[in-house]
Amino acid sequence: MKKTVSVLLILLLVFALLPAGALADGEGERSVSPWAEEELRRAESYGLLDVGTLRTDYEWGGETVTDWRRPVTRAMFVRFALSYAAAMNHSDRVTFQETVNKLLSERTEDGYFLKYPFSDDRTSEVAAAYALGIVQGRGGGIFDPNAPITRQEAAAMLCRAYATCGAEATELGAAEPFADEGDIAPWASEAVRVLRSRDVLRGMEDGRFDPKGSFTVQQCAVCFLRLYELMPVSFLKGNVTPVFTREEVIPALETAYGSLLRWDGPEAVFLRRETEGVMHGYTAFFLVYSDGGVRRLAEAVPVSGNAPNFDSAGFSGDGRIFTYVMTLEEDEYGWEDGTRFLLSAAGVYTVAVDVLTGAQTVSYATLESRSRWDDVPKDAWYYEAVKLCVALDLIPEAGEKRFDPEGTVTCGQMVENTAQVLSYLTIRHWDLPPRPADWGVAVLRLEDGREFEAFRAWETRQWRTWAGPMNKEPFHYSIRMTKTELTRLFPELAEQSEVWVSATLDMGDKQVPGRLWATPEGDLPDGGPALLFYPEETSGYPDGGLPEPGEPTLLFRCAQPGDRWSSRGIYYLAAKGIWYETSPSKTAEGWELAYLLYLLDLSCELPEETFRPIYDVTLTEGTDYPYLLPLCRAGILRLDDPDWVFDPAAPVTRAQFAAVLLRLLRPSAR
């Protein structure tokens, strides 16, 4: 099930559903005059109304202001001014003012706390506005935050807010003077003339400016919109001198109680900030632009503490979209007024962030629909095979949330897993039988106390036939070691060609005395060192018993250094009559896997459905791999599979091997 929610779309829908004369506010609707509606909508689209909840008193709470036709206080004006300065600097208000206070405002010696510039205000907003030069106070360390602002004070502070973009406000031609021009204070007269010439400030209907008259909230918002749209320097025109560079902003976002994770893209840097708290921490996400702008993103997936780690994250090829995926293993709840409510349901969330606008699109999927591995999609043809093999500990994972489906399989792993499957198919047990008696591991003990492990294997005079089972002879015990290892066991072989020693073959429930002959150059078909064990007397044993006295029963042939078989799987298969002559570290190829399965079919009494033919398959003349026939007929291998066309000459991938094991264990999956 998919749910997609667009944050931007929600905002548009909210505005579309509001009645005329009302606009959305932080805690409901705000009342405005009809003449201001259109301009306020534009201001909203630019981020100029990023002022939070307006209040009559910010330091002590005060009443919430929803009627924007009332006079604006000096503290409210500061919020609009910071919102404007932030928009001019490609930033959101809260993050911009935090950066200002960290880099520009006066702080205590330890750097943790602000030194507030006014005795009657201890808000970070006013401190930031003072650091930027937007407000100067009324003298004597007084700011008077809750007093209404006059129209001439507004003009002066509008010009000072404009100056934060690195430009001086200049007059555009000679503006017609107001009827009460003489009533304007000298310190505000130039600002009034400049803003009137630029059509930012307009007079009353009777031609007066009314410099000491009240300035409403909606007038304040509209004037900052006009400042943004009509003045010669603006973010819209791309000619703003930023207050900060990106290299200054990113360190400023670090906190003493958290850390930053960073992803660099061509258009912006995505930051994830973790902050630790006394009870619980929280996570914040930011986009930092090349021009020094910074935007704190809304919480796309609300959680009660730190957000879970990303499953994956990164920019699109063109850098315009940043996408991250994270999983909530449990429902996230919050509390409000003593009531518990759901923040976010457990599931997999994919968040796509528009780098330019900061708009976020959230896609949701239930936990049941997710893949356990980042590199194995839920709809991959081999997903169920991987799921089964990992659950049964047949094929290990490649790391945290990784399977590496395109990785290759070694012959050692192939033999080990095939032996486990054989054990399950024949005795319904995943663990291979314990040593030694159950599957033929014995200990060869020399007269001087030295000992080493040997395993029972069938010696085959005729390795295979296409028409029938393997031609089996009585078993022998085989030990694999290098010529160097043999010489280390018998140092005298460095100077002589052979050694005879007394030895005992310990078979768990039977002790067989005899003599061991060792030589560095044996007479096996492919040469190499050899060990032959000669029992002293005939001893009956299952599967045909030991050979007659004087006939060798223990053989050894040389392997390459570092290439010894150490897994029980090779022993188990050998005890079943399957001797797999290859290197355990070699990458398995398709024909080797097919041949091993073919030997399984020939040598073992498997359940009837294991290799039951379900397809009518014939081999064309001259086929190089005739042993593919029973496997293709059983549907274990497919030469025309739409997902995986079996190639005998190609390396076997982990995904392909998992698929083969699944088909062996579950015929219904073929």
What are its keywords?
seven-stranded mixed beta sheet; 670 residues; five-stranded antiparallel beta sheet; 20 strands; elongated; 4 domains; 20% strand; disordered N terminus; alpha+beta; 16 helices
Question: Can you give a write-up of this model?
Answer:
The protein folds into four domains: 7-237, no CATH class; 246-369, no CATH class; 383-405 and 589-669, no CATH class; 441-575, no CATH class. It contains 16 helices and 20 strands. A seven-stranded mixed β-sheet has the order 19-18-17-14-15-16-20. A five-stranded antiparallel β-sheet has the order 1-13-12-9-8. Strands 4-5-6-7 form a four-stranded antiparallel β-sheet, covered by helices on one side. The longest helix has 17 residues, at 411-427. With 670 residues, the chain is an alpha+beta fold. Mean pLDDT is 80; it is low at 1-22, 435-439, 456-477 and 538-566. Helices cover 26% and strands 20% of the residues.
